[in-house]
Amino acid sequence: MTARQQWTIVLGIVALLAVLLAAATHYLGDELFPVSVGSTAPALEATTLVGPKRTKTLADYKGKVVLLNVWATWCEPCKVEMPSIEKLHREFGAQGLAVVAVSVDDPGTEEHVRDFAKELGITFEILHDPQKLTVQKYQITGYPETFVIARDGTIRKKIWGATDWSSEANRALIRELLGPGPVALGH
Questions:
Q1: Active-site residue among 46, 58, 68, 78?
Q2: At what angle do helices 110-120 and 76-92 cross, to 10 degrees?
Q3: 47, exposed or middle or buried, with CB in 10 Å at 0-12, 13-18, 19+?
Q4: CB–CB of 71/79 below 8 Å?
Q5: Is 112 exposed, middle or buried (0-12, 13-18, 19+ CB in 10 A)?
Q6: Which of 1, 9, 81, 177 could form a disulfide with 162 if both were Cys (CB 3.0 to 4.6 A apart)?
Q7: What average pLDDT does range 30-39 have in this prediction?
Q8: How many helices (H) and strands (E) does the chain have?
Q9: Phi–psi pair at 78, nearest 5 degrees
Q10: Which pLDDT belongs to residue 187?
């Protein structure tokens, strides 16, 4: 075999691998890149439940520390942890913490989700994602699942299941991420 034939085979194999990688990325998407602590938070798109219906993304929370909670009204552990999330929101919301709870309840349940939030006295933002795109992008495996996202978009904590968000360890993390004060957004 000549050197030219060997190079042709090598280039063919490299081209085949590139095509396979592109196909895997297209068909498997986010599954190739695990959503974990230290990684960049995936895109988020969910609709508001209060006021005019509009789509919100992570860009809407630029410059803030985000506590992203993915939940459903039928999830008992979700209901159990909501008061501690509310407490965290009341303590740190004015300092730059954005609590964003994305309900993955079915389409047509918006009124039920609003009533659920009202019943629990929730004042933080509730969004709705009935198509469960957040579940796919964040690779959610159960409810609730919560991510603490730093101002730079990096996931700093990921919790599967309910937790006490008013615990000293969780509050210390939020204080650390908030730093000395809110970051001024560019003009």
A1: 78
A2: 60
A3: middle
A4: no
A5: middle
A6: 81
A7: 72
A8: 5, 7
A9: -60, -45
A10: 36
Would residue 86 show up in a list of annotated catalytic residues for this protein? no
Q: How far apart are CA 166 and CA 99, in angstroms?
A: 13
Q: Which residue's structure tokens are 């599967």?
A: 160
Residues 51 and 54: their CA atoms lie apart, in Å, by: 9
The pLDDT confidence band at residue 25, using thresholds 50, 70 and 90, is: low
Query: Interior CA angle at 34 toward 32 and 36, to 5°?
Result: 165
pLDDT tens track for 98-128: 999 999 999 999 999 999 999 999 999 999 9
Instruction: Indicate if the pLDDT at residue 23 is higher than 80.
Output: no
Of 35, 67, 72, 75, which is the active-site residue? 75
Picking from 37, 43, 40, the residue whose alpha carbon sits closest to that of residue 58 is 43
Known active-site residue 78: yes
pTM for this prediction: 0.79
pLDDT at 34 over 70: yes
